[in-house]
Amino acid sequence: MPSIPSNKPYRVGRSRTGLGLFATKPIKKGTKIIRYFGPLLDSKKKEEDAIENKYLFELNNRWTIDGSVRKNIARYINHACRPNAESDVKPRKRKVFIRAIKDIEPGEEINYDYGTDYFKAYLKPIGCKCDACEKKRKKKRAEARAEKARLKAKAERKALKKAEKLAKAEAGLKEKLKAKAERKSKKLNGHALNGKSLNGKHLNGIGRARVAGRKPAGRKAPVSAPAPALQA
User: Fold this and answer.
1) By mean pLDDT, which of 19-23, 160-164, 185-189 is the weakest?
2) Could you tell me whether strands 78-79 and 95-100 are parallel, antiparallel, or unpaired per DSSP bridges?
3) What count of Cα atoms within 13 Å lies in the side-chain half-sphere of residue 3?
4) Which string of DSSP letters, residue by residue, matches 53-75?
5) pLDDT of residue 141
6) Could you give the count of Cα atoms lying within 13 Å of 63 in the half-sphere of its Cβ?
7) How sure is the predictor about 4, in pLDDT bands with cuts at 50, 70 and 90?
8) 178: confidence class by pLDDT, cuts 50, 70, 90
9) CA–CA gap between residue 171 and residue 157 (Å, rounded)
10) Buried b (16+ CB within 10 A) or exposed e, 108-140
11) For the range 6-10, what are the long-range contacts, defined as Cβ-Cβ under 8 Å and sequence gap of 24 or more?
12) Does the pLDDT at position 53 exceed 80?
């Protein structure tokens, strides 16, 4: 890492995206933190216009700063969608300063918005890793988990309701079968079936029930009148 004078309010350190620039002292809002510098590239020169790297800082349609040089400590400042600093571009002087737009506390990473073109070309394909985007992704993941849990709970409720309905139908069928069996049992225990006699009972009411152990009484012979006496 490049050496930084101790009187400077920043240091290079490990960040979520690799290396980053961190405050070592309180930095007040509006303070010029560091200059972004490097060789100036003239877009009118084909060899210079053909140079490509992710540290190019465009001043205007003609001039661009190539910030890839090691001495440019400002190149370690990472992008943020909700930054605490911004680039203060001075095209006529062909200079760029990074200025605080918020109070920055010691240990806090310094960052600024790289702009739409840079975001689309370099950050969007791999996914921005700034705190704001990480929070969005975290929120989306939480929402996705909640939605998954909601759908799972809904499916479980539906399955439970279906099981209860099936159990109820089975219970109703069992009750019907039980009632049918009871009716059949009652008929077999003395109730009339198709006009036949069961257990000594006659269906048409004509027959007489027999008493066990007794024989039916026989018919008595008719008593004849005494013959008249003969007279002498």
Assistant:
1) 185-189
2) unpaired
3) 2
4) -TTEEE-SSSEEEETTSTT-GGG
5) 87
6) 14
7) confident
8) confident
9) 21
10) ebbbbbbeeebeeeebeeeebbbeebeeeeeee
11) 8/34, 9/33, 10/34, 10/73, 10/110
12) yes
Cβ burial, residue 12 (10 Å; 0-12/13-18/19+): middle
Cα–Cα dist 69/2, whole Å? 11
Asked whether the predicted pLDDT for residue 41 surpasses 90, the reply is yes
Distance CA 229, CA 14 (A): 159
Q: How far is CA 144 from the centre of its chain?
A: 4
Q: How many CB atoms lie within 10 A of CB 73?
A: 21
User: Dmax over Cα atoms in the chain, in whole Å?
Assistant: 190
Cβ neighbour number for residue 153 with a 10 Å cutoff: 10
Residue 73 C-alpha from the chain's centroid: 44
Please give the model's pTM, rounded to 2 decimal places. Answer: 0.62
Q: Is 13 left (phi over 0), alpha (psi -120 to 50) or beta?
A: beta
- Please name which of 138, 125, 94, 131 lies closest in space to residue 113, comparing C-alpha atoms: 131
> 177: Cβ–Cβ under 8 A, 6 or more apart, which residues?
none
Q: What is the Cβ-side half-sphere exposure of residue 116, based on CA atoms within 13 angstroms?
A: 0
18 forms beta bridges with 15
pLDDT in tens, 93-148: 999 999 999 999 999 999 999 998 888 888 888 888 888 888 888 888 888 999 99
Give strand ranges (E) for the chain: 10-15, 18-23, 32-36, 40-42, 56-58, 63-66, 78-79, 85-90, 95-100, 109-112
